[in-house]
Structure formats: structure tokens, C-alpha cells
Write a structure and sequence with these properties.
The chain is mainly α. Helices cover 54% and strands 0% of the residues. The protein contains three helices and no strands.
């Protein structure tokens, strides 16, 4: 069972349910989410900054 995105500090890219939740939250494809995690790591705040620069 995936961790609820709002309480998680990291994205578990190997968990299908978590990927589905995070792709919906960020409004990106699974491929884009995987690339973001490869590029900057799995920390939610870092991925958020990568996918939405200037959003925070």
C-alpha cells in the first residue's frame, strides 16, 4: 500500500500505487516522474522544485 503523498518525504518510485498518486499530484506522466527522480533524487521537495521551478 503506498504512502499518502502529503505525509511522505520521499517518492517510492518502485511502488505502482505511489507512482500513480505522485503523477496525478504533479500532473506529469510516469516517464516524467521517473526522469525527475533519476535527475534529482526521490525527496518530494526536490522533485517538486525540479518539475515546477519557482513554485515554492
Amino acid at each position: 500500500m503506498p504512502t499518502e503523498p502529503r505525509t511522505s518525504t520521499h517518492i517510492d518510485i518502485s511502488d505502482r500505487g505511489a507512482r500513480d498518486l505522485w503523477t496525478k499530484r504533479f500532473g506529469v506522466t510516469e516517464e516524467r516522474l521517473r526522469k525527475a527522480v533519476r535527475m534529482v533524487g526521490s525527496r518530494v521537495t526536490t522533485v517538486t522544485d525540479y518539475l515546477n521551478p519557482g513554485a515554492r
